[in-house]
Amino acid sequence: MAAPDLRAELDSLLLQLFQDLEELEAKRAALNARVEEGWLSLSKARYSMGAKSVGPLQYASLMEPQVCVYTSEAQDGLQRFGLVRASAQTPEEVGPREAALRRRKGLTRTPEPESFPALRDPLNWFGILVPHSLRQAQASFREGLQLAADMATLQIRIDWGRSQLRGLQEKLKQLEPESA
Amino acid sequence: MLEGAEFYFNVDHGYLEGLVRGCKASLLTQQDYINLVQCETLEDVKIHLQTTDYGNFLANQTNPLTVSKIDMEMRKKLCREFEYFRNHSLEPLSTFFTYMTCSYMIDNVILLMNGALQKKSVKEILVKCHPLGRFTEMEAVNIAETPSDLFNAVLVETPLAPFFQDCMSENTLDELNIELLRNKLYKSYLEAFYKFCKNHGDVTAEIMCPILEFEADRRAFIITLNSFGTELSKDDRETLYPTCGKLYPEGLRLLAQAEDFDQMRRVADHYGVYKPLFEAVGDGSGGKTLEDVFYEREVQMNVLAFNRQFHYGVFYAYTKLKEQEMRNIVWIAECISQRHRTKINSYIPIL
């Protein structure tokens, strides 16, 4: 491979890397802002509802996730992280589990399908009539989640970009002494 | 009831009124709040609070200092003062104090029931219960499945028993029903308290009745505001409004039909007391929220209660002002510990 082509490729890779880094920084700042906003809104909710009404007493120690992370392959062979609402998947899991229960216990357990309705909104852990600040907190944290997934994807791209860069730089070094 | 409390109030209650006025003088001043706002860490907050009437109340706390520890210790101090007042009181002031503790009891009952729903251990929740709302049957609350169960088995001997009139039902206690139970209990309690004050007459009624009317209307507004976008139906909502306020009956009927904030504002515009409050609400994230405006008005009314003598309202007002002070300190402490100082001045100054 000729040296100028290699250099051109190196340049474009470097530019792409810097663009990704800038995007990562911007997303990180946005995530920090969202998380800070979320925590402040929670404090505001505690101000109106009382400090013990918004705390670890309100949620169970074991909980079902509302949002799950999935990985997929993009065109350039890199991993991408995405978010999926868990409710889309639970109905399929009930079937085999129910059958397993039947086999173990020998009774027909019809209540099982009812215990997986639409997944309950975590907002309802704190009551039905929650103040606006709690809803704002939920919205901030949800936005932060999406940002976190994007940041993970970007991080993988940046690591891959750096390894590519190193590889190209090695090749260039090998070519330089030969042509010199 | 004979008017003229100035003739015989001091016989039974003069000592306690003097005491509560002394306690009121030790509330934090504007200068104290300015000092607190300038603190960088929670340790600085502790040092500043040592110079106030709080003294060394955090001396026994281990590191690291957290906001919830500060909150707990402040609450213990308030509780000690309240219990002292209560233990030295005579009738009818003792009944007045019992009425005051009922609201904390309702909160504790709901906390225990929610905890049972989330399968938390009773011990864990008892620690977080409000000390002023303690009653002996508390630990048994989590065994109840329905409101009727709760009443018959647990609460029939407590001061909360008379408030269960509208709440008896056989529905199992899930989140919606617990919320409905909480609000219905509170509505009965507020109406009973209002009747007690009104029947007592004299200066107490003149001071306490407007305060309780405001509390009832404020609850109606806040329930309406928080119910937008939830599964609570309009009819259910109307049954939760306390009827001892200025809004009863036409305002409450209009409020029950409201579907957004502007319609609520239009209902408030009919009442001279509430129109300026709604006008003070800023829109969006910049200005004050409706809850802030209501808290300010509550503080105003409670401070004015001290301008008259020979009534029980001073005890109620002092407790509420102290609670507002605790909320202020906790807010400032949270802003400091989260290093998010933009809204640190949103506390409500009292004196």
From TrEMBL, chain A:
It comes from the Eukaryota. Residues 7-34 form a coiled coil. Transmembrane segments: none annotated. GO terms for molecular function: unfolded protein binding. InterPro entries: Vma22/CCDC115. Residues 92-114 are annotated as: Disordered. Keywords: Coiled coil, Cytoplasmic vesicle, Endoplasmic reticulum, Endosome, Lysosome. The keyword ATP-binding does not apply. It is found in: Cytoplasmic vesicle, COPI-coated vesicle; Endoplasmic reticulum-Golgi intermediate compartment; Endosome; Lysosome. The keyword Endoplasmic reticulum applies. GO terms for cellular component: COPI-coated vesicle; endoplasmic reticulum; endoplasmic reticulum-Golgi intermediate compartment; endosome; lysosome; vacuolar proton-transporting V-type ATPase complex. Pfam families: Vma22_CCDC115 (PF21730). One of its GO terms (biological process) is intracellular iron ion homeostasis. Accessory component of the multisubunit proton-transporting vacuolar (V)-ATPase protein pump. Accessory component of the proton-transporting vacuolar (V)-ATPase protein pump involved in intracellular iron homeostasis. In aerobic conditions, required for intracellular iron homeostasis, thus triggering the activity of Fe(2+) prolyl hydroxylase (PHD) enzymes, and leading to HIF1A hydroxylation and subsequent proteasomal degradation. Necessary for endolysosomal acidification and lysosomal degradation. May be involved in Golgi homeostasis. This is Vacuolar ATPase assembly protein VMA22. It comes from Panthera leo.
From TrEMBL, chain B:
Subunit of the V0 complex of vacuolar(H+)-ATPase (V-ATPase), a multisubunit enzyme composed of a peripheral complex (V1) that hydrolyzes ATP and a membrane integral complex (V0) that translocates protons. V-ATPase is responsible for acidifying and maintaining the pH of intracellular compartments and in some cell types, is targeted to the plasma membrane, where it is responsible for acidifying the extracellular environment. May play a role in coupling of proton transport and ATP hydrolysis. Regulator of osteoclast fusion and bone formation. GO terms for molecular function: proton-transporting ATPase activity, rotational mechanism. The gene is ATP6V0D2. The lineage of its organism: Eukaryota, Metazoa, Chordata, Craniata, Vertebrata. Pfam families: vATP-synt_AC39. Gene3D superfamilies: ATP synthase (C/AC39) subunit, domain 3, V-type ATP synthase subunit C domain. Coiled coil: none annotated. PANTHER family: VACUOLAR ATP SYNTHASE SUBUNIT AC39. Keywords: Hydrogen ion transport, Ion transport, Transport. One of its GO terms (cellular component) is proton-transporting V-type ATPase, V0 domain. Belongs to the V-ATPase V0D/AC39 subunit family. This is V-type proton ATPase subunit. It comes from Panthera leo. V-ATPase is a heteromultimeric enzyme made up of two complexes: the ATP-hydrolytic V1 complex and the proton translocation V0 complex. The V1 complex consists of three catalytic AB heterodimers that form a heterohexamer, three peripheral stalks each consisting of EG heterodimers, one central rotor including subunits D and F, and the regulatory subunits C and H. The proton translocation complex V0 consists of the proton transport subunit a, a ring of proteolipid subunits c9c'', rotary subunit d, subunits e and f, and the accessory subunits ATP6AP1/Ac45 and ATP6AP2/PRR.
